Amino acid sequence: MRDNSPTKRVIPHYHDRFVRALLSDPEQASALLHDHLPSAIADRLADSLPEVCKDSYIDEALRLSQSDQLFKVQLRSGQPGFVYALVEHKSYPDPGLPLQLAGYQLRIWQDYAQGKAE
């Protein structure tokens, strides 16, 4: 039996669960995207809610330190688009980050080319 007393209860990765919950709720995600994307991008998004796509593109080994979500969005032009939200939990500068992000983008484009990202 698990001990849930305040001194024994540990909530591992609570920040990761919070971010995942935020990104999985279309209304919250919409607010996050409109508030944090550069205005040149946010202004191109239609008022419709983003559609949550595939669960995660993050490598299994890094899932404890990052949260991500791919969204299919409608643009004001009427065309569809994708927004990839990635929240890092790193506590140090990582010179390998650009290559890591490029790998995630490649996976998204591969899924899109194979019809899996829609």
Sum this structure up briefly.
This protein has 118 residues and is α+β, with helices and mostly antiparallel strands. 36% of the residues lie in helices and 17% in strands.
Tell me the span between the first and last alpha carbons: 43 Å
| Backbone structural class | alpha+beta
**Whole-angstrom Rg:** 17 Å
N-to-C order of helices and strands: HHHEEEH
Describe this structure in words.
The protein starts with 13 loop residues before the first helix and ends in a 5-residue tail after the last helix. Strands 1-2-3 form a three-stranded antiparallel β-sheet. The chain is built from four helices and three strands, in the order αααβββα. It has 118 residues and is an alpha+beta fold.
Describe the protein's topology.
Layout: H1 14-24, H2 26-36, H3 39-42, E1 51-52, E2 66-74, E3 80-88, H4 97-113
Antiparallel strand pairs: 1-2, 2-3
Descriptors:
118 residues, alpha+beta, 3-stranded antiparallel sheet, 4 helices, 36% helix, 17% strand, globular, disordered N terminus
